[in-house]
Specification:
mainly alpha
Length: about 200
């Protein structure tokens, strides 16, 4: 349960921080200001093109090797790596959702006298949410399983605790219990996202 609590904390904090950050990265990548757009697209390309495991190692050991300022908290290092990684993936999901809304609806909103902000929040955003729920749910479920990578730098999460029990008592049951925790957690998330999809079905155009 101690390991599961740490896994849940990492999952929740990553989600809370990565969702809004991903939207900001998306806006930056879609900006008409080319240097900002290129910078955001470059960051997304690097993060999506390298393993999360490598990113965790770089975030934890990088400051100490490059600036002689070692990362003092292992959990914070993992959290930073997870937030950056998933924010980049979420940004691409946001971008796909926004671009899936036809330009004609923006033009129609302007004819009706809506501002760009009103158009985004009242016309575009409801449709974007409907379009991004399925891919977003897949990423969030993947996030649950990816939390096990935190043990690479010694964060005491669910799999690490299970592995310690296996080594100490020479039994395999802790690994099965860990798998059961993941199954229950992801099963709950799957039911939640199905409920959300049904609730948003009236946004279908």
């Amino acid at each position: 349960m101690t390991g599961f609590a740490e896994t849940c904390l990492l999952f929740i904090l990553t989600l809370v921080l990565a969702l809004p950050l991903g939207l900001l990265i998306c806006f930056g990548a879609m900006s008409r200001f080319k240097p900002l757009s290129w910078l955001m697209k470059g960051i997304v390309w690097i993060i999506r093109g390298t393993p999360l495991l490598l990113q965790i190692i770089v975030v934890f050991y990088g400051p100490g090797l490059l600036f002689d300022y070692p990362m003092r908290s292992r959990f914070i290092a993992v959290l930073i790596a997870f937030v950056i990684n998933y924010a980049c993936y979420f940004s691409e999901i946001y971008r796909g959702g926004i671009q899936s809304v036809s330009k004609g609806q923006n033009e129609a909103s302007q004819v009706l006298g809506l501002t760009k902000i009103q158009t985004f929040f009242f016309v575009v955003l409801p449709q974007v949410i409907k379009h991004i729920v399925p891919p977003m749910s897949n990423e969030i479920i993947t996030l649950v399983k990816d939390t096990s990578l935190a043990r690479i730098i010694g964060v005491v999460e669910l799999i690490m605790v299970a592995q310690q029990l296996v080594n100490n008592y020479v039994i395999l049951w802790p690994l099965f219990y860990a798998g059961l925790f993941y199954l229950i957690f992801n099963g709950g998330l799957t039911l939640l996202f199905r409920f959300v999809e049904k609730k948003l079905s009236y946004y279908k155009v």
